[in-house]
Predict the structure of DUF1929 domain-containing protein.
Amino acid sequence: MKKHRRRTALLGVGALTAGLLLTTPQPAEAANLVKNPGFETDGTGGMPYCWEKSGWGDNDFTFETTSDAHSGSKAMKVSLTRRVDGDRKALITESTDCAPVVSAGKQYDLSLWYKTTTPDANITLFRHDATAGWQYWTDLKTLEMQGSWTPATVRTPEVPAGTDRITWGVSVYGTGSATTDDYTMDQVPDVTPPATCTGTADECANGRWDVLPTQNPVRSMHSVVLNNGKVLLIAGSGNSEENFNAGTFTSAVYNPADGSYKVIPTPKDMFCSGHIQLQDGRVLVLSGNKAFPAADGSHGYEGYKDSYIFDPATETYSRTNDLNDGHWYPSATELGNGDVVSFGGLREDSTGSVTAEYWSQAQQKWLALWQVNQTWSYWGLYPSMILMQDGRLFYTGSHVFGNNIPGTGSAIYDYNANTITQVPGLQNKDERDQSASVLLPPAQDQKVLTLGGGNIDSNPEAGRLTDVIDLKQANPSYVAGPPIPQGTVDLGSGPVPETGNQGKMYVSAVLLPDGKVLETGGGLHNRANPVHEASLYDPDTNTFDPVAADPEARGYHSSAFLLPDGRVMATGDNPGNGTWNHNVSIYTPPYLLKGERPTITSMINTEWHYGDTQRITVDHPVVKAELIRPAAVTHSSDPNQRFVDLPLSVDGDNVDLNVTSNPNVAPPGWYMLFAVDANGVPSVAKWVHLQGPQALSADTADAHVHAFADSLSGKVTGPGKKRTSVKVPVTISGCDRHYGSVNVCVPTVFPKGVKKTTASRCGWLRTNHYGRLKVNGRDDPLGLDPNKDGLACGKADVRKG
């Protein structure tokens, strides 16, 4: 709550203190950092001194200085009488004279008094980047409708690096008005004592990996964290033709609380299916493997049309209606209304599916083809499609197998307009096979990181490239990020340091509750040469910090994901010789070795609505809280992974959390709620259920969507001519099916340095533990069976070759 005499005193000495306020950041006990906080001093253009009109979109509006004030003689009233889109707001003027100076890494308490006649008003925040200039930062708090003067207080997130000033005010984005007065801004004092290391010095700097004593009983390449804290591990056949022919399809549920596994009967081969948590916490599993490739090359992998739902409560699968097409390796992205959209994958005839699929949350079924917008585009396999804050989808360029889509390799898809706009800047777009992409913390910042990747078909050394894009920009483009740190790679004779531009594909990227990203695992080549390296990416500084590496190989069919206790679990590895790594690793990040963890001691409830203010209590001070969507990851891909900031209003141990009003920022469903202290130490997560759009009624808040990336200059295409499929080579997985069983992957192209001789190729296969391989049929395209006895790489073959 603001002290009125503070505002009066500031006005009296404003001329004397202006220079002081703007030259150095003020401590919490200093004068209010807002100049003219009660609008008492007139300025120019019909606005008070240090305040300006702002906003965008198609709407009718008025700004007026009214005598209906909380204190003094003036207040600011912003009204909208008609709105199609956009907002209007009175902001602190974006100038060196008026905008408060801030310090990177600090937080600030913002407060004001208000009255509103609309539920569509919130406190919004902009920041000045010393390099990029003024830009939108985030929305902080939705204001409830109030007919009398009411105080509102909220704490900013930590100020990002490079920020020297901020400005803020109340945005009105629905018909009605907001009247505000008596603004204050104070820096939050540092109260948290330094962290105390509870491990070794190396562990406190780099974290620790532990290999669990109990192995994963199934060959799972799909990992889904359930809303009860358990983990669904889907194997299907586990990429085993023997299991497939026997009809042996499995899943397991892992319980982190006691380390136990429960094997679950699985109705179909869900190997390389798509999956996503629905709004109610059940898991939608779509398509999977209908057939393995034929030895004679007549067909490749085939995707079926079946779809299932896994219920965490009963731990059973039930069937839904069918998809319109087969989709082996499909995407799955939840929209802000709870619906799910899916693209890509292989059809029942091994060709590429150009059919988009749409799951209706209201009808609990896949919609018929005529009800789904179609561009008839082939997006590839597991195309990473991330939901943007305005409801469009950003294809990041991360995918699986071979080359990227034509064009720039990245695009924005507008489902409602049914248009695709190419986005530039992605480096080396055709070597981003099994790269990882994440919407960086917090989701409100709308920045995406893409890292690593290779190309299974051409099989070069995987790269170190990273790219970052800011989707808040009017015309966003990827820019090069820092290279992935190098680790060691096993080329067949034990680990050696990576050199040159060696990086990794099969990389996992995990959002952590301290706001950083763990990248871990990977391999240098197609299902070979594991890379041992891990690092923490900091979105604020755009840097990687190397940390302890997983001792286990984590290449093809591996995954890593966040557990509710703040640790990271890593599973799987399926090298080219067809074996499987059943060992499970657990990473304890450095933040869990910095002393006592905060605890969320109470919550009002676990059912949350958009625009809510939800109260929790904690046992020691926290500086931030967030919702993290639980993982549903496979093949380096989890496009729904996101970290949603919850701006704070703090009163001792009582912390009010301000929930976004935009379902596109936080699609409906179950989330892990973490509270984090000043040392980056998170609480154990509490599970909360964010209600879907049906919870949004006229007396709550509409989604507050800002105008970003609206005038893209890239090539725009609308619906194409209807086509039924795209021709795809049967070697799409980068494996030559003339040799060995289906789950064995002899590369179509050997790594650089392997000569095109039988001896050299067989030597590489021997080093990677393939053994002798049966030749399927009469063809021997790689020259591995010169004596034509039907077995590759025998002694006589090597002598002849």
Summary: The longest helix spans residues 14-23. The mean pLDDT is 93. The chain has six helices and 57 strands. The radius of gyration is 28 Å.
